[in-house]
Write a structure and sequence with these properties.
about 475 residues, alpha/beta, 2 domains, eight-stranded mixed β-sheet, about 45% helix
């Protein structure tokens, strides 16, 4: 017999439309738990107890157990420890400083967030939000207010979807419970919690204006290449396009370019749990991106996800385990309707390690990575692509030339951030410019990349030197 949690997961994977929390069987419990926060002036303890109670009730609903009361939770529980500290810090320091307010963040903004949950049906009606499923080429638009309601539900952990469940193979998580809990690498989680609180503070501050502007939207597009959409790279006569190489700065610095997200195949990766590298940071600075976690199924090899209009609300300092909240950020790069002009394309790379490293030069893996990059590049109207290299241990020289092939086939120019990788700083621009000067085509570079493995010494344990090999094959 299939367990109820697994059955719920299978039902969501097969559904075409998102079931909203106000449609759940335990919605009355959620409503009765949050209503006192909306109508009163809640303390931090009441907020944390409400989240804990909803989490427990969700588990009970899935298991068929009886309801647990609020009285059985502790505000010092490890399940909300990080959020507890973030609320203290935002209440005492960031909210007074950044918003010039003498009011309490917890007593002013948190009731507003709770009310967004209760008002979700008003802004995201039943059967109005569809999934972007595997193999689908489609777009979903979510209003800015609707996105705030969906993320408010994530804050209070009302979604049925279970976090960190090995059986959940189709969607990423959507509730913030993993980010709120105690963890050995505590610093990045605290930073991301502060970014989330700042997002809600900003939405609260501008809510009346947001409601008056129906044109404020975030667009999520799933790109799926059919067999006929995939170019014949080997025989392409297209010329290579231009490349700018920067050792300093980050992908998000190029405001007018398509910005690449080196993603997990589950969109957002660990953005709402323990992750703290490029994708997770970007989704924390721009929380509206996390709506993609709700509606997008896992990416296949021929797919990408394009997010347009997700606003940046926070700044950051540091990276990975040194990540810190950098304060409030005002996104001024907007169109005439007030929508952020930020456009992000999520693509997931193959994961390699020391044992499998040599296999990335195999033609099948080169093909997979070029098709994935092309899926990420080809459907944007932006002429330039801001990119770099991800954290999945691929050869940086090979990755840069794979993207050079894909960008040229998509007729886009590259802005490449090396993050101070010396081999790329010293040689990437020179190599691409030499190939352009010689008239090397997409097909010739593609064939050169596929030939590297046959020219490498089979007896050597060292990895091929991609740039050196390409120069030799193309006689540069």
């Amino acid at each position: 017999m299939i367990s109820r949690p697994l059955r719920v997961q299978q039902q969501e994977a097969q559904a075409d439309l998102v079931e909203m929390p106000f449609e759940y069987s335990h919605w009355d419990f959620i409503k009765s738990t949050l209503t006192p926060l909306v109508n009163g002036t809640p303390s931090k303890k009441q907020v944390l107890l409400a989240i804990g109670a909803i989490l427990s009730e969700r588990k009970n609903d899935l298991s068929g157990a009886t309801t647990t009361s609020l009285d059985q939770f502790s505000e010092n529980s490890s399940s909300v420890l990080c959020l507890s500290h973030a609320l203290d810090l935002f209440e005492e320091q960031y909210y007074p400083d950044d918003y010039n307010s003498e009011k309490s963040f917890i007593r002013t903004v948190i009731p507003f967030v709770a009310n967004l949950v209760l008002d979700t049906e008003k802004y995201v009606p039943s059967k109005s939000l569809k999934y972007l499923k595997m193999g689908m080429m489609d777009t979903v638009e979510v209003s800015k207010v609707g996105a705030a309601c969906l993320l408010a539900n994530s804050f209070f952990c009302t979604w049925k979807r279970i976090s960190n469940d090995a059986l959940w193979e189709v969607f990423p998580s959507i509730n913030y419970d993993e980010m709120f809990c105690e963890h050995p690498n505590y610093r990045p989680q605290l930073a991301k919690c502060l970014m989330l609180l700042n997002y809600f503070a900003r939405i609260h501050e501008s809510f009346a204006l947001i409601c008056q502007n129906p044109n404020l939207k975030i667009k999520f597009s799933r790109v799926c290449l059919s067999v006929n959409d995939i170019p014949d790279f080997a025989n392409s006569s297209l010329p290579l396009t231009e490349i700018e190489v920067h050792s300093e700065g980050s992908i998000s610095d190029s405001k007018d370019a398509l910005q690449m997200d080196f993603a997990n195949k589950y969109i957002g990766g660990a953005s709402i749990s323990f992750g703290c590298v490029q994708e997770e940071i970007e989704f924390s600075l721009c929380p509206e991106m996390n709506v993609a976690r709700l509606i997008c199924q896992v990416m296949q090899d021929n797919e990408s996800i394009l997010i347009t209009g997700a606003e940046q609300f926070s700044s950051h300092k540091g990276y990975a385990f040194t990540l810190d909240y950098g304060g409030n950020y005002m996104d001024t790069n907007k169109d005439s309707n007030g929508n952020s002009l930020k456009e992000t394309s999520a693509i997931d790379a193959l994961v390699f390690n020391r044992i499998t490293a040599h296999s990335q030069w195999q033609k099948s893996n080169i093909d997979r990575e070029i098709i994935k990059a092309y899926a990420g590049f080809c459907h944007s109207s932006r002429q330039k692509i801001s990119t770099g290299c991800g954290a999945f241990l691929g050869d940086k020289e090979l990755k840069s030339l794979i993207q050079t092939v894909a960008a040229a086939q998509a007729r886009k120019d590259l802005i490449y951030y090396t993050f101070k990788t010396q081999a790329l700083d010293d040689h990437l621009a020179n190599l691409v410019n030499s190939m352009r000067k010689k008239g090397v085509t997409v097909g010739q570079l593609y064939q050169a990349l596929c030939s590297i493995i046959s020219t490498a010494s089979s007896s050597s344990n060292s990895l091929p030197e991609t740039f050196k090999a390409v120069k030799g094959i193309l006689r540069l």
